[in-house]
Design brief:
Shape: globular
Distance between the termini: 23 Å
Structural class: alpha/beta
Radius of gyration: 22 Å
Bound molecules: 6-deoxy-beta-L-fructofuranose, manganese (II) ion
Strand content: 5-15%
């Protein structure tokens, strides 16, 4: 499903006058809007292939219809997102949910939709139908060497698929851990996992990165073998210069200060990227910015401060990915909102007067520090994000045109109302 240039043009024409009024008002108020718009135009967020259908919980799944039935249809859906917001120019695949049967054909299809392949994700957390050894008691931590080798071989296979598609990074999230005290020897589990990751690391092409994703709990509920940023950092430091930590916003214990974690990982040059989502309790995988938009802003504030200090390129030096699951929203609408929330938080953080903040911090002027941050956070930057979209050929209001053009209805009539996308 693609929209025509004319349909997007018509949509923008109907909204342009009001948009320009809001943009002019911001241009009056702010000094650096052209620079902010340029940085927004360069910023691309990768869409997870496993979040294009309806998710669910152990209590139920309520599909909305028209879900992609194949990798090809997933690429088409991300292509449509990118057509609307011009900020979703990459797809992150999960193996074996999205095995590219014909890599050349898949690459060509993605190119037609102006999409790149972001990080590849391995899956040693589910037992596949044809699998000989079970991951019930873990994969790379497992006391059984053959099971560890099975997980290593799977990751080597995932790297090969990535090389065939032009990806240059591998995300390893391990569900390994324990559910009860005494079940595991923590040090041996760490050592087994490190040795296994070292064998995967050794197979990385020289221009690749490995992201070690940590998670505090679920599906294990007593310990996780990559349980927090400290453990992930230990692995990344012991593995080598191509290994980094990956911060999934939903993978922290309640009230963790994620912006401080981000600041320190950047300082250590070991922050690799993000899985953006939002949560109120656990790994809820909700729409980005839907629960704690101020935290998202504070994270971007630390990112810009730390990346500027190291002269890093905002758009390309870190992995920007969404990791979400949709139980009650239309998956594509949810992803449109998530990308929008990320762009808004980035734009607000770009408005922070960093020199003023530094001098207020030097004077311990706590009140002024907060004023400087919240002045940026309370600035409605949506016209800047919309202008970046417009000048890249996108839609001024993606959700409105998605609904006005009855995209979901068209997908349901094309694909059926009971189609199920592979993934979570
Ligand atoms: C684990 C996780 C990981 C993915 C999975 C789909 O909770 O965040 O990033 O492999 O979700
Ligand atoms: Mn994740």
């Amino acid at each position: 499903m693609r929209l025509t240039r004319e349909q997007i043009g018509e949509h923008n024409d109907s909204l342009r006058k009001f948009h320009l009024q809001k943009l002019d008002a911001l241009n009056e108020m702010l000094s650096n809007t052209p620079a902010v718009i340029d940085q927004l135009k360069a910023f691309q967020v990768a869409i997870p292939s496993w979040a294009l259908g309806t998710g669910g919980t152990r209590f139920g799944r309520f599909p909305g219809g028209g879900e992609p039935r194949s990798l090809e249809e997933k690429i088409e859906d991300v292509g449509l997102l990118h057509q609307l917001n011009r900020s979703s120019g990459a797809i992150s695949l999960h193996i074996p949910w999205d095995i590219p049967r014909n890599a050349k054909a898949i690459r060509d299809l993605a190119a037609q939709h102006e999409l790149k392949f972001d990080a590849m994700n391995s899956n040693a957390f589910q037992d596949q139908a044809n699998q000989t050894l079970s991951y019930k008691f873990g994969s790379m931590q497992n006391v059984n060497k053959a099971i560890r080798q099975q997980a290593i071989d799977h990751n080597l296979e995932v790297i090969q698929y990535g090389k065939d598609l032009g990806s240059t990074s591998l995300t390893v999230w391990l569900s390994d851990g324990s559910c009860f005290p005494g079940q595991l020897n923590f040090r041996r589990s760490f050592q087994n996992t490190l040795e296994s990751l070292q064998l995967v690391y050794a197979a990385l092409p020289s221009d690749w990165k490995m992201f070690v994703e940590y998670k505090a709990f679920e599906p294990n509920f007593y310990s996780m073998t990559v349980g927090d940023w400290g453990q992930s950092l230990l692995y990344a430091q012991k593995l080598g210069p191509q290994a980094f930590t990956l911060v999934d916003l939903g993978h922290h214990l309640p009230n963790a200060n994620i912006e401080q974690i981000v600041s320190l990982l950047l300082m250590e040059s070991k922050l690799g990227g993000f899985h953006f989502n939002d949560s109120k309790y656990g790994d809820d995988d909700l729409t980005v910015g839907s629960i704690r938009p101020y935290q998202l802003f504070l994270i971007f504030n630390e990112l810009i401060d730390g990346m500027n200090e190291k002269g890093m390129n905002h758009a390309s030096d870190l992995g920007w990915m969404i990791d979400a699951s949709h139980n009650v929203k239309d998956p594509l609408e949810d992803l449109i909102q998530s990308v929008e929330a990320i762009m808004i938080a980035y734009a607000q953080a770009l408005l922070v007067d960093r020199d003023a903040l530094k001098s207020a911090q030097q004077e311990n002027d706590v009140t002024r520090c907060q004023e400087i941050l919240q002045n940026a956070f309370r600035t409605d930057v949506r016209p800047l994000v919309a202008e970046a979209r417009l000048t890249l050929g996108g839609a001024l209001e993606p959700i409105r045109i998605f609904r006005d053009r009855k995209v979901r209805e068209a997908l349901v009539s094309a694909r059926g109302s009971n189609t199920v996308a592979t993934g979570l």
